[in-house]
Amino acid sequence: MRGEATVLHADLDAFYASVEQRDAPALRGRPVIVGGGVVLAASYEAKARGVRTAMGGWQARELCPDAVVVPPRMEAYTAASRDVFAIFRDTTPLVEGLSIDEAFLEVGGLRRIAGTPEQIAVRLRERVKTEVGLAISVGVARTKFLAKVASAVSKPDGLLIVEPEREEAFLLPLPVERLWGVGAVTAAKLHGLGIHTVGELAELEAATAERLLGRAAGAHLHALARLRDPRPVDTTKRRGSIGSQRALGNRPRTAEELEVILTQIVDRLARRLRDRDRVCRTVVLRLRFGDYAKATRSRSLRTATDRTAILLLVAQGLLSAALPEISERGITLIGISLSHLGHVDSVPPELPLDWDDGSQLDTVLDAVRDRFGAASVSRAAQLGRDPGLSAPLLPEHE
C-alpha cells in the first residue's frame, strides 16, 4: 500500500504578470512582459508567442512586438504573496513555502473536518481566485515531487490529482525535464545518452545512473524516476536567509555592469534586514553561467551586521574573485543571499569608536526612501541606468 495522495503543490500562474493584469483590467487578455532589459515574467498570452523568463527584452519584443512592457512592482507582488500564503495557512497548519508564489501543503488527517484532498484543493483554488484575484494551479499526489510535477502539467489554472495507482502511468511517459533537478545541462547529457523520458531513466540500474550523472545527482534523479521521494512537507525548518537575483539574458556583461547590479541588490537586501530588525553573518553570491551551470561563493563575517557598506564590501570581493570565470564562461544570472540571520538585539553593543561606520547614513537613507519612495535616492553609479535592473526579492517564509 503506497498511501494516500494528501500532498498539495500550489503554484500561482505567471505570478508577476498575473498581478499586473489583475490590477490593470486593460491588460487582461493581452501579452504582458514584466521587466525591460530582461524578461522577469510573461503572461500566458506572451508565452504563447515564445516569450520566456530570463530572455533578453529585445528578443522578447521581436517575438511579440505588440506586448505591453511594464516595470516590476515588487511591493505589489509581495503583498499578493502574503495574501495567498494566509489562505494556505488557513487551509492547513502544515505549509512549506518554496518561493514567493508556490508552496507544499499537507492535508492528510483533515478529511473529517475539511473533506477529501480534492475537495480541499478545489476550495483553496476558489478562495485564491475570489479573495486575491489570481489563478493558481494545484497538483495533488502522494509525494512532494509528484505533486509538483502534477501542478506543472495542469497549468494554466488547473487541478490535477495523481492517485497512487496511477503514478507510473502519469510519470513515466513524461520528458526527463520534468524531473525535479534536471536543468538544461543534465537534460542535454541525458538526451545524448538516448534517454528522453522518465521511464527510460527509470529502466537504468541505480549504479549506472550514478556513473553517468554523478553519484549524488544520479542517485537523486533515479530515485525520483522510480517514484521514491520520502521527504515530508517540512514546516519546522526556519529559512534563515533572504535573497534577490537578476536574470541577465545572454549578452556579455562588463565588470562595471555587474557591480552596479550587485550594488542595487545589496542596497535592497540590507534595507530589508533593517526593516525587520535582522542582521546576517553570511553573504552568498549566486551565479548562473552562460552554459546555465550554477555556482555559489560565500563568506561569513565574524560578527553579524545589517550595515550596507560592510555587506557590499563582502559581496564585491566575492564578485571580483569570480570575474575570471565569468569572463570565460559568460553569465546569465547574478544574485545575493544573506544567511545565518539573527535578531538585531543579538549583536553585542559596539564601542563608541565604531559608531561612525555608516549606521547613521543607513538610517537617514532608509527614512528618505520610506517617505519619498525607493527610487528617491540612488548611487551615482546607478544614474541613467535602466530601471529594469531592479531584481525581484525572494521572500522569507519563516
TrEMBL record:
Q: Can you say where in the cell this protein is located?
A: Cytoplasm
Q: Where does Mg(2+) bind?
A: 11, 101
Q: Site positions for Substrate discrimination, renumbered to this chain? A: 16
Which stretches make up the UmuC domain?
7-183
The protein's required cofactor(s) are namely: Mg(2+)
UniProt-listed Pfam families = IMS (PF00817), IMS_C (PF11799), IMS_HHH (PF11798)
| Enzyme Commission number | 2.7.7.7
This enzyme catalyses: DNA(n) + a 2'-deoxyribonucleoside 5'-triphosphate = DNA(n+1) + diphosphate
- Tell me the keywords, alphabetical order: Cytoplasm, DNA damage, DNA repair, DNA replication, DNA-binding, DNA-directed DNA polymerase, Magnesium, Metal-binding, Mutator protein, Nucleotidyltransferase, Transferase
| CDD domains documented for this protein | PolY_Pol_IV_kappa
Q: Which GO terms describe its molecular function?
A: damaged DNA binding; DNA-directed DNA polymerase activity; magnesium ion binding
The record's remark on the cofactor is: Binds 2 magnesium ions per subunit.
Q: Which NCBIfam families match?
A: PRK02406.1, PRK03858.1
Enumerate the HAMAP family for this protein.
DNApol_IV
State the protein's purpose.
Poorly processive, error-prone DNA polymerase involved in untargeted mutagenesis. Copies undamaged DNA at stalled replication forks, which arise in vivo from mismatched or misaligned primer ends. These misaligned primers can be extended by PolIV. Exhibits no 3'-5' exonuclease (proofreading) activity. May be involved in translesional synthesis, in conjunction with the beta clamp from PolIII.
Instruction: Write down what this protein is called.
Output: DNA polymerase IV
Q: Which organism is it from?
A: Microbacterium terrae
Organism classification:
Bacteria, Bacillati, Actinomycetota, Actinomycetes, Micrococcales
